[in-house]
Design a protein that fits this description.
- With about 325 residues, this protein is of the alpha+beta class.
- It is built from 8 helices and 13 strands.
- Helix 6 packs antiparallel against helix 8.
- The longest helix is centred in the middle third of the chain and has 31 residues.
């Protein structure tokens, strides 16, 4: 089962932007319309400051997406796809998956560039990344590095703030599409280079089971925790689940993961993508909640913190030698 199961996976080469948008369910636009109220028999504008965002298909209103400020900026799906098509046309990256979330308020387009880290037969990390429209009124587009480990079917997330995202204020000028694509790809490739070095370092670092438990506990410890403070019962249970993955998961017997810091890190990634409970709500569908969590939400933050802590702990261990 693919980690991208909540998206539309492309099982054949997608050659054009139009083809990708059609198969990915992205052929619609979003408009701002006045908010009306009925006063007696007359329809009047209810608010001068707010408008309703509506999804339209073939000039037909489909559904409401929410009320926003009048100056709320919108990036259309076609504009996000135009940036992705720069990479596809230049053979820098190919379309992997796409979807519209929560009735269409946000879209996600997943791309894959040619670079891979070979770990074993049918076992590699692929340089994937995704682009999404901002849902904050800023008329911005985000690009996120998100390498995919094939054997655990899990997504790697950059350590540090903002999950490695590059936020770009979008411009509708044609020349800017090329510039925006170049900026996002530069961020993706910079993380890929850094991750390759970190991957080699973590694979080379042998750890004991006790050190693995220390690492896993550190990934789950709140930043506000006091020195020596014990994990909560829930966090302790999660650590036990992660340790079970570390000792008996999909890659436990592989040389790069057996008794290594990289294997401990992959147990965090596998837990976050495949075992962590993801809660949805009336405001966010189950599908949208899963994609949000894996790529940009709680699961992504856990994976990012796991990578950052693995690198930090590894450096401390090397310094003691």
């Amino acid at each position: 089962m693919s980690v991208f199961e909540s998206l539309t996976m492309f099982n054949r080469p997608i050659k054009t932007k139009a083809e990708m948008m059609k198969e990915g369910g992205l052929v619609y636009n979003v408009r701002k319309v006045p908010v009306y109220a009925h006063l007696r028999d007359e329809r009047v504008v209810e608010s001068e400051r707010h408008v309703m965002v509506m999804r339209y298909e073939n000039d037909v209103p489909i559904c409401e997406l929410g009320m926003v400020r009048k100056d709320y900026g919108i990036v259309q799906n076609d504009e996000v796809a135009e940036i992705c098509d720069v990479w596809n046309t230049a053979n820098e990256a190919k379309y992997l998956a796409a979807a519209a979330l929560n009735k269409g308020e946000r879209i996600v387009i997943v791309m894959q560039s040619p670079e891979v880290i070979k770990l074993g037969p049918n076992d590699e990390i692929r340089n994937t990344f995704f682009v999404t429209s901002a849902h904050d009124g800023s008329e911005s587009i985000f690009g996120y590095p998100a390498p995919l480990h094939t054997k655990t079917d899990s997504i790697i997330v950059p350590a540090g703030g903002h999950l490695g995202a590059k936020k770009i204020k979008h411009s509708k000028h044609v020349k800017r599409y090329m510039e925006e694509a170049t900026i996002i790809m530069a961020r993706v490739q910079r993380f890929w280079g850094d991750f390759q070095e970190s991957c080699e370092m973590l694979i080379d670092t042998k750890i004991t089971d006790e050190q693995a438990m220390t690492y896993l506990g550190g990934c789950l410890r709140p930043k506000t925790a006091k020195p020596g403070e014990s994990l909560s019962t829930r966090a302790e249970n999660i650590r036990e689940e992660m340790f079970a993955i570390y000792k008996g998961g999909p890659v436990s017997n592989d040389s790069y993961a057996d008794g290594t810091m990289f294997g401990a890190y992959l147990s965090v990634v596998h837990y976050a993508d495949h075992m962590k409970v993801i809660r949805h709500s009336k405001l966010r569908s189950e599908k949208a909640a899963k994609v949000q969590s894996l790529l940009m939400g709680d699961s992504a933050r856990l994976k990012a913190e796991g990578l950052g802590f693995a690198i930090s702990l590894n450096q401390k261990m090397r310094a003691r030698k």
